[in-house]
Amino acid sequence: MGKVKGRMDESILVCVYYGPNGERLIRRGHKMASIMDCPLYILTVDPLPYDEFDADKSDYVDRWKELAEELDVEEFIIRDNEKRPSAKVIAEVSHKLNITQIIIGQTAQSRWEEITKGSFMNVLLREITFVDFHVVSVDRAIKAEVDGMFEKGVRAYLVKDGEGFRVNFTLTKNACFEGIFFKETGTDFNNGIFKFMSNRKMCQVHITDDQVTNPTLISCKINQ
């Protein structure tokens, strides 16, 4: 990792958390870093020790590491077993690396989501001066793949329903997958597409009247 970059007065930090937005944020950061010819760093923060990560978290981290190698990222940073507020960690890493651009994604269960609510951003702005922030929602990132046949994506979950799945818009203990539901335009029913991450791949299923049309025909692909 880390070839010598032509421009060292700029540097980009991508903050990622578990969910369907992480890989896209990294690729967006890489695109910006390529244009600016500057170093790119990736940061993830977790209150648990690394050896206590579950399979899903480990899969995300492994994929991010692969991307960091593939895209020649300067450094992939994991701050595990971290008990301090995430703003403190971001500020510390930013000061250490002389970061000038920070990219953060909004996800439903992430510690970064507070950023869009104001108070967290104010804390960051007080602690990190002369830095540009880029906050990207999951809806915006994934919706780029969906054409005008669908309405704006909304947060949703797939829950078990007999031998199949149905879409639910409230997070419950029975939720199996978290993602974005894109409802078909011109219909009063929940017909459309549900997009979600599974095993480091972007997947989608068709929804008809709240139900997954055919659970055995889940279409998945690695994000490009």
Characterise this structure.
- It comes from Filibacter tadaridae.
- This is Sensor protein KdpD.
- GO terms for molecular function: phosphorelay sensor kinase activity.
- One of its GO terms (cellular component) is plasma membrane.
- By secondary structure, the chain is an alpha/beta fold.
- The protein folds into two domains: 12-141, HUPs (Rossmann fold), CATH 3.40.50; 145-221, no CATH class.
- Helices cover 26% and strands 31% of the residues.
- The protein contains five helices and twelve strands.
- The protein has helices spanning 22-36, 55-70, 86-97, 119-127, 138-143; strands spanning 12-15, 40-45, 75-79, 101-106, 132-137, 154-161, 164-168, 175-183, 192-198, 201-208, 211-212, 219-221.
- Strands 6, 7, 8, 9, 10, 11 and 12 form a seven-stranded antiparallel sheet that branches. The protein has a five-stranded parallel sheet with strand order 3-2-1-4-5, sandwiched between helices.
- Strand 6 and strand 7 form a beta hairpin.
- Helix 3 (86-97) packs parallel to helix 4.
- The chain is elongated.
